[in-house]
Amino acid sequence: GPLVPEPARPSGWAAAFRAELAERGPAPWFPAAAEEFARLTGVTPTMARLVVAGLPMIDDERVAVPSATLKTIGVKAADARVAKDELRKLDADARQAVVAALLPADPSRLWTDGPDAARAAEVWNERFGRRAPVPEELLHDAVRGVVSPGWAPAEALRGFLDVTAEPRLSQDLTWRIGAYRPESTGQTPGFDGAVLKGSVALAAWLAHRLPAGDPIRATLPGVLTALRDRLAHPGLLIDVDRRIDWEEFRRAAGEPTETGDDFVRHGAVVLGTGRSETVPAIRPALLDATGNDPHLTALFTGERPNAQETALRLVHDRRFAELLADPGNPVAGERDADGTWWPQDPARSVPDLVTEVAERYGIGEDAAALHLMLLAMPDPTDRNTARWTGWGKQRGGTARLRAARAELAATDLVVEGNRSKAGRSLFLPGGWTQLANPHLPLERWKLPMYDLLDGESPVLGVVVPTRPVAGLYREAWRRVQDGDEPQLEELEVPRPRKSRR
Q: What's residue 390's pLDDT?
């Protein structure tokens, strides 16, 4: 970035500062300055504290902020890591200008009134733009939980809060076939394949992570509309992130629909003709209403869908739109005290199934609801089941959860035990699959409902429902009724080796 001149200091400022430091020792910490900086800029409380503390160790990727500093400014190490990673990516000169603006014109005021947070916030907003405030816990959960191959979750989350002001969700770019892959003809930020992948992953994750009625969850239908609008732009080309066998594709695809100077087009599939190793692209405006085109089959013969294809399919999928839409009121029961509710609570989203499960197995409705969560949800941890049912916040709710677990554990519907990273003690019988961090491990029986193969990483970097959870509960229960219920697998026990004489 351009060099930022240091604020003009009156002559003798540095000498006066050193005299104050010698007399008073290090300046005290002023929490109010960090609060003011956060309020004026929209950054998270942790980020504000690191800025007002002078960005300690910010450029060193390997060295954490010292624990003594974190203790003084009241920041947890995990939160500091997330904020530091984001701050480190910002322009260094602009960061320096923000820190310089914290120093008051009269150095003694650093000890009496604290840093000049208002002036520093002014410089921040000038250089980086004011941010829409995002709840810090949600932002950090997204950064840690969404391993998106596209747009970074922290940026995407802020973009979701004001779609029209975010160029990546509101700005169409025009593309051409480059030497190896599609290239944008402009230099400005706008919508592309990375934004598509990152947005779809984050939208699915937020729909699962936030309750119905939450204001941030309410932005998701608008995000989906923006994605569909961008994909309808006739000038858009999206890289499919896959190399193909040209000759095989041509045999399967037949004659091209259009031939240009440096490309051939088969339906929505565009291939550059300048080199033999070009990555194919898709012109999404030419896909049908379901996001398909007959030539895509020729492009991906026998291959598992990758992130780009999965995101394109989901944006056109009616069930994904239903997941992101407002679920309305609970089918049974009430909203929580704050006006929200979780469709993951079967008693509120599929009360008829809860009754059916309770009757079939002769168990209470609480145990039946818990069993349905274990059957269909990817992450039915003790913490999540308490959150979804609302029992965690109710008087006597902990005892209610404990009783439901004990009742279910006494049946042969589940097995009890300790498993690494599971966050729960009850499991469906049968195989168990460990996913790479940060994803939770889960029962193999559930993999088909999440379009996962055993041992495979989730293509969009999240393991969450991509359709309304009521539908997942019904599918899981239908599988049980059809005789495909979770059951212990025969363990292959290796034969004992003969001992040597």
A: 93
